[in-house]
Amino acid sequence: MRFGRKRNEPDPESEAEQALDAALSAIERGEVPDYSQGPYDLAVEAERNGFVHLPDHLDFESILLPPTGGIPLFARHAEGADSEIVSLVLDHEDGELELAVTSSGGTPGMWAEVRASILAEVHDQGGTGTERQGPFGVEVHGHVPLTTEDGEQTSWRARVVGFEGPDWFLRCLFQDALADSPELARPYEDLVRRVFVRGNPAVPAGEPMPLIPPAG
After folding, report:
1. How far apart are CA 113 and CA 106, in angstroms?
2. Host H or E run for residue 103
3. Is 58 exposed, middle or buried (0-12, 13-18, 19+ CB in 10 A)?
4. Which strands form 137-147's sheet, in the order they lie side by side?
5. What is the pTM of this model?
6. Which among 123, 197, 210, 131 is positioned nearest to 164, based on CA atoms?
7. Residue 112, phi then psi, degrees to nearest 5
8. Is 97 helix (H, G, I), strand (E, B) or coil?
9. E strand or H helix at 17
10. Domain 55-197: assigned CATH number
11. Facing residues of 98 across strands?
12. Which of 46-55, 108-117, 154-163, 199-208 is the least confident region?
C-alpha cells in the first residue's frame, strides 16, 4: 500500500514555488502589494503573497520601518552605555512618536490590558485619561500636569494606539503636539500603517522583542 498523496491532491512544495514565481514576476513588473493599511506581520504577508518585497524599509529585526520621508528617526536605549534599544522614535519639534514591540506569546487581549495599565498610571500621576475611538480603533488619551524646574505649569499629553499581531504587540505613543493635532499626526500615522513586525516565538510573553540597528 502506498501512502503518498491522493490523486488530484495539491503538492505544497509545488504550490509554494508557483506562488514565489508569481510574486517575483509581479515585482519585476512593478506590481507589488499596496501596504498602506497595516501594521503587518511579516510571516503572514509572506505566506499570503508568496513573497514580501520591502527594499526601502529599515530592518530593525522586530520592526521594519518604511522610509520616513525626512522625519527624524532615532533609537531610544535603556539606561547604560551599551544598553539595548527599547524603542524607535520619530521626532517632531513639538512632540514625538515612539514605537515599541513586545511579545504577546500568542495570547489575545493584550491591548485591553495595556489600556487599563496606562489609564491607571496616568491617574496615579494626577492626570486624566480616557478611551476614544480613533482611526486605528480604540485609543487611550492621557493628560498629566507638570511643573518645570522654573516653576512653569505645563503638561504631558499622550495618545496611545496598540496593535495585536499573531505573537506580538506594537505600542505607538504619540506625544504632545502629535497627540493633540490630527493634522500633524497624519504623516506619522501613514508610517505606522506601513510598518512590518517580525515575530519571534522564542521571546517570552510580555518581554520586549529585539530591536537591532540595520547593518551598515
Report:
1. 14
2. strand 95-103
3. middle
4. 73-77, 85-92, 95-103, 168-176, 153-164, 137-147, 128-134
5. 0.84
6. 197
7. -65, -40
8. strand
9. helix 12-28
10. 3.40.1000
11. 89, 173
12. 46-55
